Amino acid sequence: MHRRRFLVSALASVAAAPAWAQSHQGHGTSLTPAAPSPDPYAKLQGGVPHHLTPDQEAQRVIDSPAPKGPQGRWLTRAALPIPRSEMAWATEWNGKLHVIGGYGEGRVDRGYHHVYDPARDEWFIAAALPRGANHVAVVALDGKIYALGGFIEQNRNPDTHAYVYDVATNQWSPIAPLPRPRGAAAALALNGHIHLIGGASSPTQERASVGWHEVYDPKADKWSARKALPGARDHVGCVTYDGKIHIIGGRFNTFEYNTDLHHVYLPQQDTWEVRAPVPTARSGHGLVVYRDRFFAMGGEGGIINRAGQQKVFGQMESYDPKTDTWQSHAPMPTPRHAVGAVTIGDWIYVAGGGAVLGGSVQSAVHEAFTLT
Fold it and tell me: Collapsing DSSP states into helix, strand and coil, what is residue 55?
């Protein structure tokens, strides 16, 4: 990376958090322990604890049209330190779950950085994102976590900020900004590079989905363009598998226009192909690789303030890349969208997320799934 960027980081006070109270395995620097939230839900307006109403609970949908596969089981894990959502995604490094940015405590521009250790079923506080934002794209590569773009208003007004977090030192530094502002994009690591795909951009009043596909080279600290995603969309599910990138589901501008589209990117040909669509068209869902299958869980869809058409999904559906087919599994006990989902060991961890359609209610709920 350019020496100039590291000098800028010092001037911008992008530094490690203060001395921590307790050692945390997996980091070269200790992290602050964080107690689980005593309240499972909180309202965005006012940031106060909230109990779901019967009408809000009625938004939950768990039925899947996909053939049934092994059902598996869910367990409750330590709740997030605070109810939060709209992180957009989470990432894993060295067996730890990192959840970054989002809504919480009555604001939409938080720089939260919570780290979960499944071996201890405990949460920790790591150095905060240098500027708060929601729908930040995050991905881990070679002991670093990249945080790219995001919205600084409620699901609106994207910026070009980009940062890298060093797990060993618990420190953020700025990197080359995005070529164009966007939030709710998909970030993936492949062959030593970071791919940033889709999302939503300016102007703020329109917040239109984009199909942009740009690649960051960490060694050169530079961005370059690749073939755009067919069917511009945001709030997608994304994974890498067998040297390819899969983009599944998402929305065209708003969750009223969810899609079941499934595209795979072939890097050697710089082209996209179509694969079997996800059985439940959804956006704001989690997508992870587990036991050589892609598991999709959660998400949202429908129309705000229209009874019977507001949906928060709990369906757990998985895709077999060898047969290009889908099946369903035991649904999430607590349907949510905008979750932080990763695979660690033989478990899928799904933390936080929105409890109702839209961003009005955050959750601290944390549940884990296994087929064992």
Answer: helix
pLDDT digits (tens, 9 = 90+) for 26-79: 565 689 999 999 999 999 999 999 999 999 999 999 999 999 999 999 999 999
Q: How far are the Cα atoms of 95, 145, 266, 288, 320 from residue 245, in angstroms, in the given order?
A: 22, 19, 7, 12, 14
Cβ 127 vs Cβ 172: under 8 Å? yes
Please give the structure tokens belonging to residue 212.
């942009």
Is it the case that residue 6 has pLDDT exceeding 50? Answer: no
Identify how many contiguous H helices and E strands the chain contains and give both numbers.
Answer: 2, 34
Nearest-angstrom CA–CA distance, 77 and 334: 12
CA 63 to chain centre: 23
Residue-wise pLDDT for 98-131, tens only, equals 999 999 999 999 999 999 999 999 999 999 999 9
Looking at the DSSP bridge assignments, the partners of residue 234 are 251
Q: How far is CA 56 from CA 43, 96, 357, in A?
A: 12, 32, 9
CA 233 – CA 259 distance, rounded (Å) = 9
Identify the bridge partners of residue 141 per DSSP, sorted by sequence position.
144
Write the single-letter amino acid at 193.
H
pLDDT in tens, 59-70: 999 999 999 999
Task: Give the integer Cα–Cα distance in Å for 243 and 40.
Answer: 38
The CA dihedral of 112, 116, 121, 125, to the nearest 10 degrees, is -40
Distance between CA atoms of residues 68 and 242, nearest Å: 25
CB 79 within 8 A of CB 366: yes
Give the pairing of strands 300-302 and 310-313. antiparallel
> Locate tokens 């109810």: which residue?
83
Q: What is the spatial distance between Cα 256 and Cα 239, in angstroms, rounded to a whole number? A: 24
Q: What's the topology of domain 3-370?
A: Neuraminidase (2.120.10)
Listed by start position, the domains of the chain span 3-370
20: which DSSP letter? P
Helices (H), 269-322: none
CB of 186 closer than 8 Å to CB of 231: no
- Residue 174: helix, strand or coil by DSSP? strand
